[in-house]
Write a structure and sequence with these properties.
Elements (H helix, E strand, L loop, with lengths): L1 H39 L1 E7 L2 E9 L5 E11 L2 E5 L5 H14 L4 E5 L5 H4 L2 H6 L3 E4 L1 H10 L6 E2 L8 E5 L2 E5 L10 E4 L4 E5 L18 H14 L5 E4 L8 H22 L1
Parallel strand pairs: 4-5, 5-6, 6-7, 11-12
Antiparallel strand pairs: 1-2, 2-3, 3-4, 8-9, 9-10, 10-11
The structure holds zinc ion (ZN) (2 copies).
């Protein structure tokens, strides 16, 4: 009997030690990922097989850090990048992190509208020989805004409700929204919708910046997205946490609030 207790004690010690070791290892790994993210300012997260989000952070002078999401999609042995990081240096850091964490070359890129959280790193990509594709209006607007200009323009996306096949993803222009030129990207294989800044995260309390967009049209294209992509498994917003189709209904609600308050202000 004593021998039995002795073996039982040994076994319990081994089990608890290995559990503790596992916990410590997991803690070390997550600390390593966090410090990597802090060090580079870039977080790359796999959200489905061969699909990652990339998140970079803009530091406002008051110390607030604001996250911005793009997408990385594997196609064979190369990658498609959707949107640059928020800045040129951040985009260089993004390419370094992609090399470290995924280790496949980026062959093509899409920018989803002419704002710096999407397009500030276009020159960095082009300097590395990566083709950067955009809506024709994005080319005009990046020039006007003094942003680096994408070197390739999609043909067949000029009209609202148009789409083109771009390697293993679909690029759609449903119409103006957050920006006049906002594109969205659909991954048919994984049923992932990249809404970019035309989709608000559940944590967003307002529609955000509509200075360069059209709120009425935004509501229409969001209704359209909600119908067309009701079967989406994941929806990626331009800023904040990835979610499901509830992000589309949340964006609709925020737009209704915005439009109602503006209609009220006009009447007052
Ligand atoms: Zn924008
Ligand atoms: Zn944005």
């Amino acid at each position: 009997m004593k021998i039995f207790y002795f073996y039982l004690c040994c076994w319990l010690c081994i089990v608890s030690f290995s559990a503790q070791a596992k916990t410590e290892l997991a803690a070390t790994e997550s600390t390593a990922t966090e410090s990597l993210a802090k060090e580079s300012g870039i977080v790359i997260q796999e959200i489905a097989e061969g699909v990652w989000t990339h998140t970079s952070y803009y530091h406002y002078p008051n110390g607030v850090q604001f996250p911005s999401n793009g997408l990385i999609v594997k196609e064979g042995e190369s990658l498609i990048l959707v949107d640059t990081a928020w800045g040129e240096i951040k985009t260089l850091q993004l390419l370094t992190q992609i090399k470290k964490q995924i280790n496949l070359p980026v062959h093509h890129a899409v920018v989803t509208h002419a704002h710096s959280d999407r397009a500030a790193g276009v020159d960095v990509l082009e300097a590395q020989g990566i083709d950067v594709w955009a809506h024709p209006l994005t080319k005009t607007l990046t020039t006007e805004h003094g942003l680096p200009v994408p070197n390739k323009v999609f043909k067949g996306l000029e009209q609202s409700n148009s789409q083109v096949d771009f390697h293993n993803v679909k690029v759609l222009f449903l119409g103006a929204g957050h920006a006049m030129d906002n594109l969205i990207v659909w991954l048919p294989g994984q049923k992932i919708l990249f809404g970019g800044c035309a989709v608000r995260a559940t944590s967003a309390k307002s529609v955000g910046n509509v200075k360069h967009g059209d709120a009425h049209s935004w509501l229409k294209i969001t209704d359209n997205m909600a119908k067309q992509f009701s079967h989406a498994k994941l929806v990626v917003p331009g800023h904040g946490e990835v979610g499901g189709t509830e992000l589309l209904s949340h964006t609709q609600t925020l737009l209704h609030v915005y439009l109602n308050s503006h209609a009220l202000n006009k009447r007052l």
